[in-house]
Specification:
The protein has 334 residues and is of the alpha/beta class. The chain has helices spanning 3-15, 40-49, 56-67, 76-89, 105-114, 132-142, 152-155, 165-174, 188-192, 210-215, 231-240, 264-275, 295-307, 312-327, and strands at 31-36, 94-99, 119-125, 145-150, 177-180, 220-223, 244-247, 280-281. It is 44% helix and 12% strand. The chain has an eight-stranded parallel beta sheet, sandwiched between helices. Bound molecules: zinc ion.
Length: 334
């Protein structure tokens, strides 16, 4: 699709945009600190690694058949325009979006250029791969990237390992962000494509971030989903290190694994107490279509914060201010 056509669709959709949340949201700036771009190269990469029979196209067709999921257009401009429509519909100002497989990095670079400031890119990284830190340095220097997404459980390391030090040094130099997925790891698309789970959760403990966070105060370390099951450890790591933050993204289904079965409101209350409103970042974990941008998660979290009586200024920090500061390479203060 040509750029003019993309822009025409984008403008048309803007004119019929609607608000999903309550009217006060009109004055609230919204930044989604956690989403996955999931461009076609991501699907192609996973399907090509899948042990299922058939071609990549056949495996993806079966995935669509099984789940009702829509495959993204192979045209990156079209897929970008679709995300931008979603942001406009829900009056979201900015979206941090991840290249979730190395094969997707080029597509996400292109998307952030087309999005003209509405998206910031984060690249998945395995620090054990030779040259990883140099590659990240390159992305942070000139490709619109502001950080990395790390999966210690999938790539079998601990963030406390000395092998990670070159990466931390690069991130420190750029005052960049490290999203470190801790706790339970479920990648639904990998499971659906029959990719074997070889996850080792031992390195995915938030406490393993403490030495790196202490040694690299310029890096913002983000533990997504309140630690995805390791909630107590997330609170401890947050209490220990000022440069550790948490994000609120996903359905937070990990709560089921907690012996005390807290409500999401109780989780927010504990996180607010320990992290303060200055170190909690709103996120959705939006991924695929037709679900698109998860406005339901914004609404749920807004309702919870209202219910907890969190002041409007503090809500604004959680929904945008803290993310803006981290993306700018600074940190909001409590
Ligand atoms: Zn995610």
């Amino acid at each position: 699709m040509c750029a003019t056509r993309v822009s025409a669709i984008y403008e048309a959709a803007k004119s019929c945009a609607y608000r999903i949340a309550n009217p006060q949201d009109r004055v609230m700036r919204i930044v989604d600190f956690h989403s996955h771009f999931f461009a076609r190269p991501f699907f192609n990469a996973l399907a090509s690694q899948s042990p299922r029979t058939g071609s990549t196209e056949e495996k993806l067709a079966a995935l669509v058949e099984q789940t009702g999921m829509e495959l993204p257009s192979p045209n990156i401009a079209e897929h970008t325009a679709r995300w931008l429509l979603e942001l406009d519909r829900s009056h979201v100002d900015h979206m941090v979006t991840f290249a979730s497989a190395p094969e997707e990095i080029g597509a996400v670079t292109q998307a952030t250029q087309l999005a003209k400031g509405r998206m910031t890119a984060i690249a998945v990284c395995n620090p054990l791969v030779a040259g990883a830190a140099a590659k990240v340095d390159e992305l942070l220097t000139g490709s619109g990237y502001r950080g990395v997404l790390l999966f210690p459980a999938m790539h079998h390391y601990s963030p406390a390992d000395p092998a990670c030090t070159p990466l931390w040094e690069v991130l420190e130099r750029h005052r960049a962000i490290a999203y470190v997925h801790c706790g339970m790891l479920v990648v639904k698309i990998r499971d659906l494509l029959g990719l074997p789970r070889r996850y080792d959760l031992r390195g995915a403990n938030p406490l393993h971030l403490v030495p790196a966070a202490d040694a690299h105060p310029g890096v913002t370390f983000c533990i997504p989903h309140f630690g995805a099951g390791l909630f107590r450890e997330t609170l401890m790591a947050g209490a220990q290190c000022e440069n550790i933050v948490t994000d609120t993204s996903s359905s937070n289904a990990w709560i089921r694994t907690q012996p005390s079965q807290p409500s999401l409101q109780e989780v927010f209350a504990r996180a607010l107490d320990v992290f303060s409103p200055a170190r909690i970042m709103f996120g959705t974990d939006s991924t695929t279509f037709p679900a698109g941008w998860r406005a339901d998660r914004l609404l749920e979290q807004r309702t919870i914060l209202e219910g907890l009586g969190v002041a409007a200024d503090d809500q604004q920090r959680i929904f945008a201010g803290n993310a803006d500061a981290a993306l700018a390479g600074s940190r909001a203060t409590a």
